[in-house]
Design the sequence.
């Protein structure tokens, strides 16, 4: 079984910066992809950024140039560095991980979410 624990969400002022962390643990053989999503009330969860094999990163247009996703393979951890935050970035941020466990089964798991509030 694989679990994700996110941390780092808090309230910040507009223009500020914040870094979120997501640590995976459990019966992990390999992680192929980790991603950050966000969701606000009444709206579907949207992809913010993803990284494959801890190397190839992709971003939603809304965050390009402001957010950076990175990963630490040795720690099974992914980070989301956010800068130039605006109130529109306010959301619950969720981490998602995909890979194979030690029984060679594919897994896809979500974290519990960490809230980010950006005030003007």
Sequence:
């Amino acid at each position: 079984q694989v679990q994700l624990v996110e941390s780092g969400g808090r309230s910040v002022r507009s223009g500020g910066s914040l870094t979120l962390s997501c640590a995976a643990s459990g019966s992990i053989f390999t992680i192929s992809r980790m991603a950050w999503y966000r969701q606000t009330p009444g709206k579907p969860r949207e992809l913010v950024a993803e990284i494959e094999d801890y190397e190839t990163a992709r971003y939603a247009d809304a965050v390009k140039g402001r957010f950076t996703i990175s990963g630490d393979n040795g720690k099974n951890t992914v980070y989301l560095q956010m800068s130039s935050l605006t109130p529109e970035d306010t959301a619950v941020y969720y981490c998602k991980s995909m890979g194979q466990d030690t029984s060679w089964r594919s897994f896809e798991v979500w974290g519990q979410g960490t809230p980010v509030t950006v005030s003007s």
